[in-house]
Amino acid sequence: MPELPEVETICRGLEPKLAGSTITAAKSNTPKLRIAMPTKLEQKLKNKTITAIKRRAKYIIIELDDELSLVIHLGMSGRVTVTKNYQAKKHDHLVLKLSNGQTMALNDPRRFGLVALIPTAEIDSDKLFVNLGIEPLSTKFNGAYLANLIQKRHRDIKSCIMDASLVVGVGNIYASESLYLSKIHPEREAATLSNKECEELSKAIKQTLKAAIKAGGSSLRDYRQADGEMGYFQHSFKVYDQSGQPCHKCKTAIVRIKQAGRSTYYCPNCQI
DNA sequence: AGACGTACCTGACCGC
DNA sequence: TGCGGTCAGGTACGTC
Question: Which among A11, A19, A45, A24 is positioned nearest to A101, based on CA atoms?
Answer without folding.
Answer: A24
